[in-house]
Structures are given as structure tokens and as C-alpha cells.
Amino acid sequence: MNKQKCAVIGCGAVGATIAFALTQRSLFSELVLIDANKSKAEGEAMDISHGLPFAHPMKVYAGDYKDISDCFLIIITAGAAQKPDETRLDIVNKNVGIFKSIIPNITKYNHDGIILVVSNPVDILTYCTIRLSGRSANRVLGSGTVLDTARLKYRLGQSLCVDSRSIHAFIIGEHGDSELAVWSSANVSGIDLEDFHGLCAGCQDISFQKIYEGVRDSAYEVIDRKGATYYGIAMAVMKIVLSIIRDEHSVLPVSCYLDGHYGLNDLCIGVPAIVGSSGVEKVLEIPLSQEENQNLINSVSTLKDVISKLDI
Q1: What H or E segment, with its residue span, contains residue 114?
Q2: Strand partners, 280
Q3: Cα(219)–Cα(215) distance, rounded to whole angstroms?
Q4: Do 161 and 247 fall within a single domain?
Q5: Residue 201: what pLDDT?
Q6: Cβ-count burial of 163 within 10 angstroms (0-12 exposed, 13-18 middle, 19+ buried)?
Q7: Structural contact between residues 172 and 253, judged by C-beta atoms closer than 8 angstroms
Q8: Per residue, what are the HEC states of 236-293?
Q9: Peptide bond into 53 cis (omega under 30)
Q10: pLDDT of residue 203
Q11: 24 by DSSP, 3-state: which?
Q12: What was the pLDDT predicted at 119?
């Protein structure tokens, strides 16, 4: 595998924005763009390449699946986009069908690269990728609730008048309507949220429930206003990519395969994991309150019900 080579499969708004973001960092020397519409991939590659004199030497081009044979990292964003009146789970059958054509093409040419799934519903499609590819589960991961967690930190930062990077909290579960906030261990640089709010002069009165609901519904609000979300997810994907390529061992709530973790089996869902150059290095079982544990079980049940109806 060429650690300096990456592929993005799917050149819609999300894929193109991720490809553009990748050129802003000195991570890769070669970036392959693949799309069912070859002309679209060519246009995106041309547009990005024209800005390379302002970035760093890099080869960006539209390619075919045979071009990914030595890619260390393959990012999949292909699939039907979520419409204003749809949930992420509403588009599952369309996108599982698309993955049934994509994954065999990947495995035909690439056997060892890490696959990062971004397409929605990301938990279902990450699971499908593992099943369809036969790849080791640690080398397939999804973007999970990394963006949802960032949205939580952003909203808490606004309410508590503090840098969102100082907030340590997770959204876990389905990247969707059944996701949950882990309030029991959330803190601001080691200070419990409630305690920090009491110490904070000028902080807003906050409702944790309203903050959670705002996070859960963020995508719907953005889609209603501009038709799609892509900047936030591109930045979330960049964080995951950095951890993989730089072997940072970052703790991120990616969608990963559970095999007995939290007492759950045979599905992918967003939970904290250590992410490094081998993909998912370790799934972390963080402490949950009784209510949080039940909410996670409910979230899993939602996904399990969908998985049971899939032909994979």
C-alpha cells in the first residue's frame, strides 16, 4: 500500500468538499477521484488541481477502480443524498444497492487498504462494507457520530461561553434520530458540566435536553436551508484521516464493528474508539448511566431492525 495515496469514491457535494479539504493538508501526494459520472469526477479534479500552486505538489485526477490498487485509504461518499423530507434510514435501500456495486469493484483491485465510509446511513453502510468486502473489521470504519459530537461541543461552547475544544463529551449510537448524548461523563477540562455552569459568570441558562435536540436535528435544519450538509462532515472526515495517516491514536466516536462491546454483537454503530494507522485499534467501552445504556440499546434496536431486512 502507498501511504501517500488516497481515493475518494463519489464526487457529489460531500465527496468534492472532502477532496478539496484533503488538498489543504500535506498528507497525500496522489488523490484519485471516482464517480459513476466520470465527467463530474474529471471536472472536480481539474478545478482542485488549478489551485495546487497555492497548496503543495500533488497529483489529483479522475480515475477508475483499477487506479486504487495501491491506495492506503479509500473514502466512500457515493450514494443518494438525504432530501428535506427524508431521514438517513429512509435512503438505506437505495444506498445498499449502490454499495453492492461499489464494494466488489474495490475488493477486485485493493485487498489491504483502509476503507472509511461516509455515505448515509453510515452505520448500516459500514456494516454492509465489512460483510461485502470480507475485510478485517478494524480496517473498515465509518464517520459515525464524529460530526454529531462536534455539533454537541459547539453548542455547549456557545452556551457555556467557553472554547468548544475544552469540552469533552460524546454523542454515540446511530448517526441519526436515535443517537444519544453521554451526559454522565461530559466535562469542561475535567470540570463537570453542571459544576462549570455554576462557576461561569454570564453563562446562558441551558437545557441539556434542548441542546441534545438541536444537535440531533442539525442536519435537517441545514438541509432545509441549503439543500445538503458538506462542510462540517468534510472537517470531521479530515480529523479521522489525520488520525489514520499520522497514527495519532485519537479517541473518536467512529462507526465500528461491535463484537461483545457494551454487550452488543454483529453491527456497526458510533462509539468511542482509538483510531490510528491500522484503522480501529480498540473499541472503548466508556461508562454509561443506566438511562444512557438503555438509550444505546434502543438505538441499536433501530439499526438491527433495518439490518435484518437487508439482502447482504
Answers
A1: strand 114-117
A2: 275
A3: 8
A4: yes
A5: 66
A6: exposed
A7: yes
A8: HHHHHHHHHHCCCCEEECCEEEEECHHHCEEEEEECCEEEECCEEEEECCCCCCHHHH
A9: no
A10: 74
A11: coil
A12: 96
Q: What is the domain extent for residue 243?
A: 146-307
**Alpha-carbon 148 to chain mean position:** 9
Contact between 214 and 206 under an 8 Å Cβ cutoff? The reply is: no
**Domain boundary pick from 99, 119, 142:** 142
d(CA 39, CA 139): 30
pLDDT tens-digit map of 87-133:
767 888 899 999 999 999 999 999 999 999 999 999 999 999 999 99
In the chain, which ranges are continuous DSSP H helix?
A: 13-23, 38-49, 92-109, 122-133, 146-160, 193-199, 208-216, 218-226, 231-245, 290-307
Q: Is the pLDDT of residue 225 over 80?
A: yes
- The angle subtended at Cα 185 by Cα 181 and Cα 189, nearest 5°, is 110
CA–CA gap between residue 255 and residue 270 (Å, rounded):
4
Q: What residues are labeled active site?
A: 175
Q: What CA–CA distance (Å, rounded) separates 196 from 220?
A: 30
Q: How sure is the predictor about 236, in pLDDT bands with cuts at 50, 70 and 90?
A: very high
Neighbours of 63 (CB within 10 A): 18
* Residue range 204-213, pLDDT digits in tens: 678 899 999 9
Per-residue pLDDT at 26: 83
Same-domain status, 296 and 152: yes
- Backbone angles phi and psi of 22, in degrees to 5: -65, -30
- Can you read off the three cell numbers belonging to residue 43? 471536472
With respect to residue 124, please indicate whether it lies within any of the assigned structural domains.
yes
- Same domain (yes/no): 150, 105: no
In DSSP terms, which residues pair with 8 in a beta bridge?
33, 75
Of the two residues 249 and 197, the one the predictor is more confident about is 249
The CATH number of the domain where 207 resides is what? 3.90.110.10
